[in-house]
């Protein structure tokens, strides 16, 4: 497996595998050439999971997992970004229903829901702008 990581050409160093025969686990540590927040690092993680590890372990009953802080944060980011629209919709719907009950009107809750949508969009735009500014 370490040879496959070297052939990928995206790792500065690959530490020798530490094998725990009693448990049946081997740990392999690889250090990428790119920084943790770099897009190429996330591409490397995706490529490891989709191409490299399945091809190396093709005929083997062994399983491989890509872990570490960068991979974990990438997984969390994917999960959060995938659920963000449902979360925002639930918040806006609940605030609309609560305001409808409290004010016994549709106009005030509708205006509040629209402003919540606009604020959420503006907040997301600010985060995207800041992130792109930090990368450059």
What does this structure look like?
This protein is 65% helix and 10% strand. The chain folds into two domains: 2-56, no CATH class; 83-135, no CATH class. It is elongated and about 70 Å long. The strands form two sheets. It has a two-stranded antiparallel sheet. Strands 2-3 form a two-stranded antiparallel ribbon. A hairpin with a 4-residue loop joins strand 2 (18-20) and strand 3 (25-27). The model has no long low-confidence stretch (mean pLDDT 90). The longest helix is centred in the middle third of the chain and has 35 residues, at 69-103. The protein is mostly helical. Helix 3 packs antiparallel against helix 4 (107-135). The protein has four helices and four strands, in the order H-E-E-E-E-H-H-H.
Give the structure's gist in a few sentences.
This protein is mainly alpha-helical and 136 residues long.
């Amino acid at each position: 497996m370490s040879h496959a990581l070297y052939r990928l050409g995206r790792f500065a160093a690959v530490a020798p595998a530490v094998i725990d025969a009693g448990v049946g686990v081997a740990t392999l540590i690889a250090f990428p050439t790119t920084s943790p927040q770099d897009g190429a690092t996330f591409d490397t993680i995706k490529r490891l999971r989709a191409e490299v590890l399945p091809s190396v372990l093709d005929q083997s009953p062994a399983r491989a997992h890509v872990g570490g802080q960068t991979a974990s944060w990438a997984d969390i980011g994917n999960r959060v970004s995938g659920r963000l629209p449902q979360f925002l919709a639930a918040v806006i719907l609940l605030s609309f229903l609560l305001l409808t009950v409290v004010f016994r009107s549709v106009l005030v809750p509708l205006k509040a829901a629209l402003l919540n949508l606009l604020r959420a969009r503006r907040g997301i735009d600010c985060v995207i702008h800041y992130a792109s500014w930090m990368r450059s």
